[in-house]
Write a structure and sequence with these properties.
single chain, 115 residues, mainly beta, seven-stranded mixed β-sheet, four-stranded antiparallel β-sheet, globular
């Protein structure tokens, strides 16, 4: 069974920063599209940011563009999202996602933006 392990969530004030990390098994990581999701209006989860297997292509939701940066280290089997200038509306459980022929989800990590 494929396990994605997330870390880095926490409580920060508005304007603060957090960096989330997700580690996947070496057997799949370098081949898979990786992304971060959170609950979105009208859907269970919506994409926040994702990154191609090579790292050359990225996508950001409009609401986070310019504030969040996704990256990956294939040697470390890890994907990251650096979240800056956080807003209260960024408060959510963030899920790591891996996709190719199958898709896998992490258990989620809670981020709370509050003063």
């Amino acid at each position: 069974q494929v396990q994605l392990v997330e870390s880095g969530g926490g409580l920060v004030p508005p304007g603060g920063s957090l960096r989330l990390s997700c580690t996947a098994p070496a057997s799949i990581f370098s081949l898979y599209f990786m992304g971060w999701y959170r609950p979105a209006p009208g859907k269970q989860r919506g994409v926040v940011a994702d990154i191609s297997s090579s790292g050359e292509s990225t996508y950001y939701a409009h609401s986070v563009k310019g504030r969040f940066t996704i990256s990956r280290d294939n040697a470390a089997n890890s994907v990251y999202v650096q979240m800056n200038n956080l807003k209260p509306e960024d408060t959510a459980v963030y899920y790591c996602h891996a996709e190719k022929s199958s898709d896998y989800w992490g258990q989620g990590t809670q981020d709370t933006v509050s003063s």
